[in-house]
Structure formats: C-alpha cells, structure tokens
Amino acid sequence: MRDFIYLDTDRVASLAAQFGLEHAAADRAASERSFAETEKRLLARDNVARLDASFGFEKWTEEGFHDGQVVVAGGVVRLIDFTWLAAALGGLPAVLRKMSKLEMDALRSSEEGRRMSKTAIQQRSQENQVAIQKVEEFKIEELGTVVRNLYGDVVRIKIRPSAEHAGAVLIGSGYVGNFSDTPAVLSQKYGIEINAPGWVVLAQINASGGGEALAPIPVGNRMEDSFEQLAMLMNNAFKVASAPAFPGVSVTPLGIYRKVG
Asked: Long-range contacts made by residues 17-26, C-beta under 8 angstroms, separation at least 24?
C-alpha cells in the first residue's frame, strides 16, 4: 500500500497512455491506481537507477545519468516551499513583537520579575526589541518578492539517498497543486525534512546537455535579437539562482509516497 504526498497526474497520465494503459482521472484515487501500474511498467525497463544507501556512489558521475532516465530514490526527502516560507516570514516581526509583549507582561507579574530591578526589566525589553529590529533589517518583503518571482507556485524537492554522500543529491521542483496537502499542513506534519524509512520518490533525470555558454542565434530583426539577448541574460541569472550544479542532479518528480504496511 502507498500513501502519496505528491503525484504529477498529468505526466503519469501521459506515460500511462504511451503504455496503452487506461487512465481514469476521475479523482485522485483513480490517478494513484494508474500510477501504480505505470510505475511497474517503468521500473521493468532497462537502465532504471535505484538510488538509496546501497547504491555504488562511485557511479554518481555526470556521465552516469542521461536525460529522461527513470530513477527510484529513497533516503532523506526535503520539501521547501520558498513562497510559503517567505509569506510566513513576512508576519514574523509582528509575531515577535506580540510574543515580546506577552513575555514582558508575564515577567513583571512573576516571582522572578518582582526580584528584578526596573533597570534589569527594561534591559530585557530592549534586548527583545534589538532582536526584532535585526529581523526587520533583513527586508523580508523584498526577499519575498524575489522568491515569488524565482519559484512561483512550486515546491523545491531535494532527495539525499545516503548521509555518507552528502553531495549526491537529486533536486527537483513540484507544482504545489500536485501535493495532497497544503504547504502549511505539510510543514506541520513533517517539517521541511522527512527522514523516515519507506519513503520513495519516482522521478526522471533532467540533463541540459552541458554547461557551455549560450550563443546568440540572430534572425536579423533587431527587436527580436535584442529580446533574445535579454532572455539569455535572464537564463544565466536563473541558472545562478536556482539551477543545480553537479554533484547535484536535476530531476522531474512523478510521485512521492511512503509504503504502508
């Protein structure tokens, strides 16, 4: 039995159709049943990489993976919804101010507070205000805008198959709507990291074809050629900001689940 937290129903439906399987996408349960049969067909094919602590990590090389290759991975799964995190951080200063007020009110009415001098209590309050000011200096609203532009409605997914090979990591992005729970619920259930046996990630490798610099392909239209230059600059910026570099390997997650029973 499987308990899914993530399922890319559209990609699974496409793969199922190519295998000639019926895909009744009437509801999520039907999609999960279709996934199970599609996964079975995928894993029966040649050159599937099974990445867990038993993997021979001397084979973790750039040449060891190819574009579109199916991998089934276990180990530590980290889920980071940067957009949700940025939104949550946006309210942090107000939360800290309220907590500071409650703390100081409780302190003044406690035995400890009655033993403290007025100067000592004021110093404690000032220390809290300094801590809040440092948080505000991070300019969280500006950070949130940058994060939303970079990541949009996606959750960053990182899988580390072995703690002994910390650099060997699979890195992907999953649309937030493909998760069975909202980001807040996922955070409350698991935190940002799931480190428990029985978790499985089925994914496909994304190989960009090398790190060579892009060259312009001019068409003679000055406006279009200028926009292409801009696109190339943006591409380089996005690669620096969010594209993984080896030994990190980019993947497209198809499904994330834990085995039950």
From this structure: none
* Residue 208 identity (one-letter amino acid): S
Record the pTM.
0.71
Cβ atoms of 172 and 157 closer than 8 Å? yes
Give residues with Cβ within 8 angstroms of 125, minimum separation 6: 100, 104
Q: Which amino acid is at 200?
A: V
259: three-class secondary structure by DSSP: strand
Sign (positive or negative) of CA dihedral 204, 28, 190, 36: negative
Residue 205 in contact with residue 67, Cβ under 8 Å? Answer: yes
> Residue 80: which of 196, 173, 210 has the closest Cα?
173
The tokens describing 148, both together, are 């939303």
* Separation between Cα atoms, residue 148 and residue 2, nearest integer Å: 32
Q: In sequence order, which residues have a C-beta less than 8 Å from that of residue 7 and are 6 or more positions away?
A: 28, 31, 32, 35, 178, 180, 254, 255, 256, 257
Buried/exposed code over 173-203 (b: 16+ C-beta within 10 A; e: otherwise): bbebebbeeebeebbeebeeebeeeebbbbb
Segment 48-81, tens digit of pLDDT: 999 988 889 999 998 889 999 999 999 999 988 8
Distance from C-alpha of 208 to C-alpha of 30, rounded to nearest angstrom: 33
CA neighbor of 171 nearest in space, from 88, 260, 110, 239: 239
Angle (CA) 143-146-149 rounded to 5° is 150
Tell me the per-residue pLDDT of 104-160, one tens digit each, with 9 for 90 and over: 888 888 888 788 888 888 888 888 888 777 767 666 666 666 666 666 778 889 999
- Output the six-digit token pair for 149: 């532009």
Q: From CA 137, how far away is CA 38, in angstroms rounded?
A: 50
Pair of tokens at residue 140: 């969280």
